[in-house]
Every structure is written in structure tokens, then in C-alpha cells.
Design goal:
It is a single chain. This protein is of the alpha/beta class and about 240 residues long. It has two domains: about 70 residues, Beta Barrel (Ribosomal Protein L25, Chain P), CATH 2.40.240; about 160 residues, Alpha/beta knot. Helices cover about 30% and strands about 25% of the residues. The strands form two sheets. Strands 6, 7, 8, 9, 10, 11 and 12 form a seven-stranded parallel sheet that branches. Strands 1-3-4-5-2 form a five-stranded mixed sheet. Strand 4 and strand 5 form a beta hairpin. The two termini are about 25 Å apart.
């Protein structure tokens, strides 16, 4: 079962349901994975869960699949938003993939004063999130939200959601103890490659819903910092503990 190809689909999944796959997915199963009629495939989405299906008709135009039985319910991760300044190309792909694997429920790009990227390809972000979910056995794909400017995001912040801000200049307070004092829902904010400006830092420190944490004595790249911080948050607040 582990080696069975796995696809996220925008289809209504149910026992005995038969569907025609999208052209790109048909191409992948037929021409890359070399599946033939009767071969198994796993299909999932966040609404119906995951199903074991079998390949039906295979033609040059596409492929049909027939659902047999349900394997798992859809399982949303803990209510943790991952808010980050977009990076360039491959590094942005990496951030999206790792945040998905680590269990972020929402991916929220934010523009700060020093953000180098001025536009975001949301379709590419969603495709990377889907690919990560398919490969990592997740029965959920995080929402990818429209980018916002930092000031606008903070002005509309819901009071019930804790905002965890990673400050490379933090005084080194006990990060684990600070996180243990919080409850979900929460969000994690990672800055741009050049860091936050002094004005942005001061503004974040003044907000009552913000908890400032340190990631240790080393200065990390933005993509590394995001991965490290989300792992910490999941370990303390998320689903990495019993």
C-alpha cells in the first residue's frame, strides 16, 4: 500500500464512485507510473478523506478510476497559521513544502518593508503544498491565502489567536517556557531575508497578542528559521506530543 501512487483530487469520493481524472493526473499515472486497468491508486481530499481506488479505462485522452473503500478520514492539523515573507523561486518552494509537511493549517504570505519579492504565484504555492501532502501521507492540504501587507494583517488581527514572532535579536528568554504559556489557535511569523526593520520590531513588541521568541544564538536564513520555528511550535502546542 505504501508504494501505491497517491493523488489529491477535487472529486467527490465515495465507495463505488467512478471518476475521470484530470488530464495532468492521467498523464502522470499512465505515462510516468505506467499504471494499467486494475492497478491500485490512493485518492484523497480534505472533505471526503482518503480512498483506495482502482484504475478503470485507460485511453490516450485520459483515465478513469473507481473508488473501492475508505482508508482514512480527513485530518486537519492543529490550528496553526504559518505567516512568512515570500522568498525567491526554489527557496519559496522549499518553505511551502516544509510548512505543509510540518503541519501548518494555513500558509499566509506577508509583505514587509524588506521583502524582496513583490508578487507571489499562489497557484505554484498550492501545487507545492499538494505535492508535499501527496508524498507525506497527509489527508489534508493547507489553505494558501492571498498575501497581505504586515500593517494590514496586524491591524485586523483576531485577539483570540496568539501570534508567535521569531526575533533574531531577542534576549534569549526560554523559548520552550514561553510557548508552553500559549494555547491554540496560534500563528507563527517569520520575517524576510533582511529581517524586520526597527519600526516593525518595535511595533510587534508592543502588541499584546504577540509572544516574542528566540531561535538560539545562530542567525538562520529565513527558510531555515521557518522550518525550525514551526517544528518547535508543533512540538509544544501541536500534535507532536501525547
Amino acid at each position: 500500500m505504501r508504494d501505491t501512487p497517491r493523488l489529491h483530487v477535487a472529486l467527490k469520493l465515495a465507495e463505488n464512485a467512478e471518476h475521470q481524472l484530470a488530464q495532468d493526473q492521467s498523464h502522470y499515472l499512465r505515462d510516468v507510473m505506467r499504471l494499467k486497468p486494475g492497478d491500485p491508486v490512493r485518492l484523497f481530499n480534505a472533505g471526503d478523506g482518503e480512498f483506495l481506488a482502482y484504475v478503470g479505462a485507460v485511453t490516450r485522452k485520459g483515465m478513469s478510476v473507481i473508488c473501492e473503500r475508505k482508508l482514512a478520514d480527513a485530518v486537519p492539523p492543529p490550528d496553526i497559521d504559518f505567516i512568512f515573507a515570500p522568498l525567491k523561486h526554489a527557496r519559496l518552494d522549499y518553505v511551502v513544502q516544509k510548512a505543509t509537511e510540518l503541519g501548518a493549517r494555513r500558509l499566509r504570505p506577508v509583505f514587509t518593508a524588506r521583502t524582496i519579492v513583490d508578487r507571489v504565484n499562489l497557484d505554484r504555492m498550492r501545487a507545492n503544498a499538494v505535492e508535499a501532502a501527496e508524498q507525506c501521507n497527509l489527508v489534508y492540504v493547507p489553505d494558501v491565502e492571498e498575501p497581505e501587507k504586515l500593517g494590514k494583517l496586524l491591524a485586523a488581527w483576531p485577539a483570540e489567536r496568539a501570534l508567535i514572532y521569531c526575533d533574531e535579536r531577542s534576549d534569549g528568554a526560554d523559548t520552550i517556557a514561553l510557548l508552553k504559556g500559549l494555547k491554540l489557535p496560534a500563528a507563527l511569523l517569520i520575517g524576510p531575508e533582511g529581517g524586520f526593520t526597527a519600526e516593525e520590531r518595535e511595533g510587534l513588541h508592543r502588541l499584546p497578542f504577540v509572544t516574542v521568541i528566540s531561535l538560539g544564538p545562530r542567525i538562520m536564513r529565513a527558510d531555515t528559521a521557518g522550518t525550525a520555528a514551526l517544528a518547535l511550535v508543533q512540538a509544544v502546542l501541536g500534535d507532536w506530543h501525547s
